[in-house]
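Figure S7 source data.
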Amino acid sequence: MNTTALIGAQWGDEGKGKIIDILARKADYVVRATGGSNAGHTVVSGGNTYKLHLIPSGILYPDTFNIIGNGVVLDPKVVLEEMDALAALGVKFDKLMIDLRAHIVMPYHKEIDELSEKAKGKNAIGTTKRGIGPCYADKCDRIGIRLVDLLDPKVFAEKLKRNVDFKNKLITAVYGGEPLDFNEIYAEYCAYAKRLQPYACDTGAVLYDAIKADKRVIFEGAQGTLLDLDSGTYPFVTSSHPITGGFCAGAGVGPTAIKECIGIAKSYTTRVGAGPFPTELNDEVGAHLLNVGHEFGTTTGRARRCGWLDAVILRLAVRINGLTGLVINKLDTLTGLKKLKIATHYDYNGKLIDCFPADISMLADCKPVYEEFDGWTEDISSCKKFEELPEAAQAYIRAIERFTETPVKMIGVGADRDQNIYR
Ligand code: GDP
Ligand code: IMO
Ligand code: MG
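Tokens for the predicted guanosine-5'-diphosphate complex:
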């Protein structure tokens, strides 16, 4: 079996797009299975920067099949705009497949995402306002509209009518918003359906055959472990399962179909949106990470919150994803910092904690316990071998392996496809 899952090991934006693009060079299939257009994956190749939200990051290779699985919530407007922008750059979509069971993000989902965030006031999650939570909520409530429904004008009209009537009551009576127009949405989405039809199929069945035929399959994680609906910092999470288990449900494959699970992390930690962040830095080191690391959201442009690397989080990622290895990206961003720190545990009122707590209110009183490391000043952005890294950088990577009991298999030293060290 030749299958690998790539998972965000932190709060998203770990550089998954770059790694998936690199591995996709030799892949037959790249599969997105969770999340939606809340994701923003950056691929830098040959001086061009591609920002992908719904289209899998293997799309730049003409021979690779790219699958959007049933677990993805698909915004047709976003995916078609993304395809148009990529087509203008010469990208082809003859190997793109979208699962018939994927749920469709509707205008009322985006409207409700916006309105409910506003209504939450200081308790807002800081969502991407892409309608993700409301779409998954409808899926769980069994009133969602799937691609298979959208493709049948009669079924779509019935389901849409029922939903627009109901959502308009919610939008106007609960949130004081403006009602949406059924006819407008129907016409707009029927046009999307025509364009999406050629890509629609049962992708789970395609994958089953591909895996049986020993094809190389990469599962592309979106978001990150700490944004998982169950294991993350609930309620400051996304509404899906961006963990290895999420691929089984979201791509329609069994757990035994996934051979290798690689967690992708940065050499420090970032988070977009609200919620606890034990190692957050609001000082000049935080400013260094923000500015040198260009930590601005790919989807919303928001400045990302930055802090030291947190091994408590990485251990959680190792445990719930069954990680067999780690990728540490953006080691180059640490260059120039005199001293580096990694949180190994938390101190909770004098008690040493090594497991990320379920009760996030505890986190406010959890002080990270740090181990300190020497920094380096040498430019590492063209290093190709581990031995070429300064001794201090090597020691930093070895410490991550020690704290997580997991091998670091690849190190990112720049945003380009070629700026990586393989071990
Ligand atoms: P994703 O959502 O996990 O795919 O990550 P994003 O694309 O949202 O954010 C990661 C950012 O870091 C992007 O701008 C990448 O181009 C950039 N990046 C990835 N790896 C490296 C690296 O090793 N060094 C540097 N300097 N930038 C990197
Ligand atoms: P990629 O795939 C970083 C965050 C949002 C918010 C929370 C809920 O690029 O790593 P949502 O819109 O999903 O309901 O927002 O989750 N979030 C992400 N943060 N990277 C992402 O994706 C994210 N997708 C969602 O900022 O805090
Ligand atoms: Mg991102």
